[in-house]
Amino acid sequence: MSKEGHISFEDLNLQFGQSMTPGSLFMFSEEENNFRTEIRHFAKTEIDPLVERIDREDNVQLTMSLIRRMGEKKYLSLAFPKEIGGQDKGTIYRMIFGEELSAIHYPTAVVYGASCNLYGVPIIHFGTREQQKKFLKSIMDGTALGAIGITEPTGGSDAIGGMRTTAIKKGDKYIINGEKRFITNGSIAKYILLYCKTNTEVHPRKGISAIVFPTDTPGFEVVKDYELIGRKGSVNSYLKFNNCEVPEENLIGKENDGVTVMLNGLDAERVFTGSQYLGISRSAFEVASKYSALRRQFGKEIREFEGINFKIAEMYMKIEAGRLMLLRAARMIDKGLPSTKEAGAAKCFVSDNAVQIVIDALQVLGGIGYTKEFPLERYLRDVKIAQIGAGTAEILRYLIQREVYKDLGY
Fold first, then answer.
1. pTM of the prediction?
2. 369 plus 280 within the same structural domain
3. Which of 79, 99, 149, 360 qualifies as a cystine partner to 194, CB 3.0-4.6 A?
4. Is the residue at 195 inside a domain?
5. Which are the catalytic amino acids?
């Protein structure tokens, strides 16, 4: 029923995910769609009731309680080997998980992704079975969190060339010194998969190693947690390492081959991060389309005006195209096919469009969209990082064109 006057968020009676029709789902298997239904129910019943409080209070402890709950439900072990208690599911399942979590609460997906994907997946691919059991069990059950330590004050987009943190071998230990910043989960993680220069005499690409760093190590310092525009309920930290001693058995993969470890997981990371922004986009679209069907101005529902309904059409096209691009990249990764170009293109496409979709959705709502009575202002605060994290929009475009010309033989 349309309304002449004020429309509240409750009036929309949103069923999040309602925009996913059979056309959105037919490219997924029955098992994958059943998993989506299960996660959507979990997110709606167990996460959604806490979202407003987490955002208002920037309540990290509540988010961590949700992570523990996901551990109890075995959701955290999606990517982990069956030999250590995992489900050994592929990138597609993590893509579905990221979309459905983020459609309700993006920061919960952020904490999950940093712990289970960014920290966990490289150890799955390059760690020994003993390392997997030691460093992943508490991550799978949600009693501990992981993080990944790459970005530094001197190395953001130039993460490899700009790396200054060192891990110098001394007997059977590495002595670590340096700084990392913008580290998701940094101050609350039990372990950090830390990338350091272990050979300072060669080009960084040939002298970096990946080392599991326990955060109870003496000399580890949390300088601060950044106060972010969005992502309330997660932490993003500035860290220092002051003569920290870590045993050599914490080395993941081969010494000085850390770039191989780092790059191996980037394609899957970009699919997962893209799925998060797809989830935010979907929810913004559903708010805007439902509101425009109810709100009346000039004697008719505003959905009848082209200035509105063309925006709705554009949002729909961008969301559905983005999902297909992510799905293609995910299936390629799961088949072991080279996917740098496809994953980068999918993440870049979805990220850029997510920002515009949220802005357009807010515009559809007009003045009420700029208030906190609707979640669009939270989506807007959360979504801008899409064009910065996991590869900036500019860096991804550089990577895409490089792969295009490489395919042409140049």
1. 0.95
2. yes
3. 149
4. yes
5. 269
